Amino acid sequence: MSTETATKANSAAPPGRFARFPMHWLGVVPFAAFVLLFLILPTMKIVIGAFQTADGGFTLSNVAGLFTPSILAAYWISIKISFMSAILGCLIGFAMAAAVVLGGLPRSIRDPLLTFSGVASNFAGVPLAFAFLATLGPVGLVNLFLRSEFGVDLRMLGFNILSFWGLTVTYLFFQIPLMVLIITPALDGLKKEWREAAAILGATNGQYWRMVGFPILLPSLLGTLALLFANAFGAVATAIALTGSSLNIVPILLYAQIRGDVLGDPHLGYALAFGMIVVTGCANAIYIWLRARSERWLK
């Protein structure tokens, strides 16, 4: 019997014996179950509910209801808040990451910054809203201090924590750390040989960044901007806990439609959630595409 024939004979499963389950897949079973129960199935329910009537029939009226003036205005305000917090988060986060990676700061500063960024990027919801109300609210610590020591009232200057800029500033608490976490590996990927080659060819520091550094980082920057936009647009708990019903944004309207009041329409709420899924899905798709392009340069 040849070696190949013997190998095939040994590898053949004996009759009546069940094939072994690949044990190395057991490690991802909890993750797969979590994704199925808390991501895929709820998303399918939202998508199906957006095209259903109260009695289960098919309809397009729920999606058509998204184009009413009040809902379009809510989407527009949400988009503006998300875009503004993403822009500011990118600028401030990039400056912090560049100072740590390229500015020659000691390791004792970089490690705590990255650790704090990992924690702060996931700090949202009611605790974050309470923290900002206690700090920048009408009777918050900062407002009381400025009023008692300097006679300055933030509300008289036009700042209100329950407004457009108040929610934008609150979102920055988790937008900036997320930017730091994502852009730091991209900055670490800039090779010293590129800067040295540019210097040998007579390029100044500004020319290096304009012609080499920023073009390489641009896909990462734009991709992170799209991710921060999606992150802010999908932040429901923080917006509801902070502003309640004082700001007409999509998460507030969504909460009002599905909480069970007499005037609520759950299927319109499904349509609102479906619109949020479309917006955040497009932003995440842009991020994934740009991230893949940047990784080709940084390999």
TrEMBL record:
Where the record annotates domain ABC transmembrane type-1, the positions are 75-289
Main location, first listed in the record = membrane
Q: Which UniProt keywords apply?
A: Cell membrane, Membrane, Transmembrane, Transmembrane helix, Transport
Q: Which InterPro entries match?
A: MetI-like, MetI-like_sf
CDD domains documented for this protein: TM_PBP2
Q: Which GO terms describe its biological process?
A: transmembrane transport
Where, per UniProt, does this protein localize? Cell membrane
Q: Would I find Membrane among this entry's keywords?
A: yes
How would you describe this protein's topology in the membrane? Multi-pass membrane protein
PANTHER family from the UniProt entry: INNER MEMBRANE ABC TRANSPORTER PERMEASE PROTEIN YDCU-RELATED, INNER MEMBRANE ABC TRANSPORTER PERMEASE PROTEIN YDCU-RELATED-RELATED
UniProt record similarity statement: Belongs to the binding-protein-dependent transport system permease family. CysTW subfamily.
Protein name as it appears in the record: ABC transporter permease subunit
Identify the species of origin.
Rhizobium straminoryzae
